[in-house]
# Entry
Amino acid sequence: MSAVAAPRGAHTSRPKPKAPASDRAKAENRLGQRLVAPAVILMVLVTAYPMLQALYLSLFKYRLTTPDDRQFVGLGNYATVLTDSLFWRDTFNTVLIMVVTVAVELVIGFVFAMVMHRIVFARGAIRTAILIPYGIITVVSAFAWQFTFSLNNGWVNSAFAWLPGISPDTNWFGGYGTSMFAIMISEIWKTTPFMSLLLLAGLSQVSEDMIEAAKVDGATWWQRLRRVILPNMRAAIMVAVLFRALDAFRIFDNIFVMTKGAQGTASSSFLTYTQVIEQFQLGLGSALSVLLFLTVLLIAFGIVKLFRVDLAQARGEG
Amino acid sequence: MATTDRRTAVGTGVGFVVILVWCLLPVVWILSLSFKGVDETAAGSPQFLPKDWTLQNYKDILANPDFLDALRNSLGISLIATLLSVVFATLAAYAIARLEFKGKRVVLSIALAIAMFPVVSLVGPLFDMWTAIGLFNTWPGLIIPYMSFTLPLAIWTLSAFFREIPWEMEQAAQVDGATSWQAFRKVIVPLAAPGVFTAAILTFFFAWNEFVLAISLTTTTGSRTVPAQMSFFVGPDPFNPPYGQLATASVVVTVPIIIIVLLFQRKIVSGLTSGAVKG
# Structure
């Protein structure tokens, strides 16, 4: 992130004679490629190859229970999926979860980052506290919040009974809205630390002198935030939003544990999983996989365009 | 000025308490739940703390062979995946930080793309492939995909870290009469070790947490990891989830995380932010 990172020291970028390629440069080129080869092969083998296979399988009517009945249907699976209301409902859920959790996390995460940035005491304690949700298993977080909202054994109903709409027998997992709320709380709790740490890194790159100068010029707290701090953190915010949005879009663990998709709370990932693993619909499931992959690409592209940041350039790898 | 400073200090203090409560409350809650007996949760126990504290859940869970198998699988798979992933990532990150070669941008783009990859898309094809070549329901069947999905994070963290190392010290040591091996071992390894260690922690967290592949590519306790095992654990009475035992299992698998966080919080924070923000 050259926009926010400290300039790279002279020692890290040795001058390289460009042309003509000397033996030394050729050897360096070869060594570099050999060193990255194992990692690249592994990454491509486990993702690109299966993805191509999914693309191929998505053109067949193919159930694992009757493998001999495999039959070419062209884009038939895609037509089936795209005309199914279940697919659109689950896509809507996923987008809803993504938008709401990322927006909430951006606000909470920023407040956390501000506190961590300004705090002068107990820095270690606060870092430890914030890293616990980050490190905890998502399934554990899902159980913790499922039990929190549980009808018979949760503490939320008794603790918040004074709020309108909550009574000792509020069944959180009995309806769509409240189930989604519980799922989102678990997701937000687990992933806000990641967001706030990225924002903290961005915040610490904003020059204190600039903020001080704005203060001297009479800028209010709100003006300093909007005109000085946030614009200078744009790159960090963009990275945080991109990563969190794509991560939230893949939501699966929380839904699997908390509702198993009941009350219409399934996500795109959950739908794909149930088609492949529970229904053995490999053809249809592969079509869903391909669509999910394309959606992720689309979202990534959209966010990068929206924030107008070239990631490769931003990473200082021009 | 003085009043705004005081206001900031009060705000920070309040924020500190809010953060602690928000982050730790669910953890304290499962801890409390783990001490509630079966009778208490079966009858419904909405109060926060147990009425009767009991260690029965811990005795049960630590004598449960399925859970112990899952714990062993989780530890083995996560540690092996971490070790291999970090070795591969160290080689790649060294090349990216230190050498000029064709395709560097391609490598970084692949890593970025894989970090965003929807894992569930692979469930179908991997299920098919692993069944065909006999990796289904085995340790390597999980270790291989875990390595590929942790490599991007490890490569970023390490290449960011390696760029900051003063490599000319290696030459300086050689000028002073050290052999290249001595220079590498005595100068470069101590400088690089903290970065490698940080990448290992982040990789371990990923593997320890992974769920989608763990439930899709395993069927028995021979290779099922803790998150998968927990999600299938219904207990003797399907209409009454074993709250106390699930909470206890949660506590047991969270303990290693808490220990790692307590010991290495500074490293984890620097690793996370350098990997993703400074690149």
Summary: Residues 1-17, 312-318 of chain A have pLDDT under 50 and may be disordered. Strands of chain A lie at 60-63, 66-72. Chain A touches chain B through 116 residues (CB under 8 Å). The first helix of chain A runs from residue 23 to 57.
